[in-house]
Amino acid sequence: MEINIKNDVNFIIGMFAYLPGGTVVSNDHLGVNPGDDWKKLYVNFTEAVSNYPTAIKYKVFFKASLGSEEEGNVYLDNIKIMHF
Fold first, then answer.
1. 58: which strand partners?
2. To the nearest 10°, the Cα dihedral for 42, 66, 16, 60?
3. Model pTM score
């Protein structure tokens, strides 16, 4: 996955794997620290997908928590999922 980000709070990029029988597994894949400027990230989900080869589908998620802060921002742009 290719993505442009700008964030002032920590956040996580992860993936849900939907397994046969209705089980959903959450995999926190990459933690992203705050920064002042836009940056481009490349996220490789190959290992996360290969850990659950029987999954019916996968979904990418973004998760942030404020901690002691009262507010925070995570800006996402140009999200591209690539498959080889």
1. 17
2. -40
3. 0.86
Using the CB atoms, write b or e for 50-80: b if 16+ within 10 Å. eebeebeebebeeeeeeeeeeeeebeeeeee
pLDDT tens-digit series, residues 31-51: 999 999 999 999 999 998 999
- Distance of alpha carbon 46 from alpha carbon 77, whole angstroms: 22
The per-residue pLDDT for 65 is: 84
User: SS3 sequence, the chain?
Assistant: CEEEEEECCCEEEEEEEECCCCCEEEEEEEEECCCCCCEEEECCCHHHHHCCCCCCEEEEEEEECCCCCCCCCEEEEEEECCCC
Polymer length of the chain: 84
Residue type, 51: N
